[in-house]
Specification:
Radius of gyration: 20 Å
CATH architecture of the largest domain: Alpha-Beta Complex
Order of helices and strands: EHEEEEEEEHEEHHEEEEE
Number of helices: 4
Oligomer: single chain
Structural class: alpha+beta
Helix content: 10-25%
CATH class of the largest domain: Alpha Beta
Largest sheet: 6 strands, antiparallel
Number of strands: 15
CATH superfamily of the largest domain: endopeptidase domain like (from Nostoc punctiforme)
Distance between the termini: 11 Å
Mean pLDDT: 83
Length: 218
């Protein structure tokens, strides 16, 4: 880990693909619209095509958050991942929920994920730093954050810090929450290090000396 950094760049980890919505999807989801199945055994597919793989089934009355229409399919949030179901009125229908219901559900889910990330991150305090390391035998910075995400919320994120940064939603430092990733740049452009925020000023990361607590400016 470099000792000094010219800038701090923050990205909200819960915005990694498959974990949360894009900006346009957040606007759609905030309306509280759900896609319901009218039948038992409705196919949930990986893409908006009848040729795509079926990953699960929906039963009558079951619902998932509606994220928009793609051709003849509804895009839904299925267990944190974008999936697709038929938009035919024979099989499905849309219904808006109350704002309070959606807000409570969304807040609860995000809070739970963040709590799990923080708890998991602290299990590895003292694990030595190892260049290229991704296991408890030794972590490098991104190997550590990737391991925590996988173990805490079963989310696979890119292997290196630059890719993690490229595939995340950027937020301001004032918006940092526990569980967010904090990225560091020595030259103001290329990412060289990543840690996980515990507060608006403190993080936990794998650096020289191993997994430890640190401030954003240490």
């Amino acid at each position: 880990m470099l000792k000094r950094f010219a800038s701090i760049i923050v990205a909200a980890t819960l915005a990694f693909s498959g974990l949360a919505f894009t900006t346009s999807e957040q606007a759609e989801a905030s309306t509280g619209t759900f896609a319901y199945s009218k039948v038992n055994g409705l196919n949930i597919r990986t893409s908006a095509s009848l040729n795509s793989s079926v990953v699960a089934k929906m039963d009558k009355g079951q619902r998932y958050t509606y994220l928009g229409k793609v051709g003849s399919f509804y895009k839904i949030n299925y267990k944190g991942t974008h999936r697709y179901i038929s938009a035919s009125s024979t099989y499905t229908y849309l219904k808006a929920a109350t704002t309070s219901t959606v807000t409570t559900s969304s807040t609860s889910t995000a809070s739970s994920a963040r709590s799990k990330l923080v708890a998991e991150s602290k299990k590895y305090l003292g694990v030595p730093y190892r260049f290229g390391g991704t296991t408890t035998a030794g972590f490098d910075c991104s190997g550590y954050t990737g391991h925590v995400y996988k173990k805490a919320i079963n989310k696979s994120i890119p292997r290196d810090s630059r890719s993690q940064y490229a595939n995340s939603k950027k937020v301001s430092k004032s918006a940092i929450q526990a569980g967010d990733l904090v990225f560091f740049s020595h030259n103001g452009s290329t990412i060289q290090h990543v840690g996980m925020a515990l507060s608006k000023t403190q993080m936990i990361n794998s650096e020289t000396g191993g997994v430890k607590y640190a401030s954003f400016t240490s």
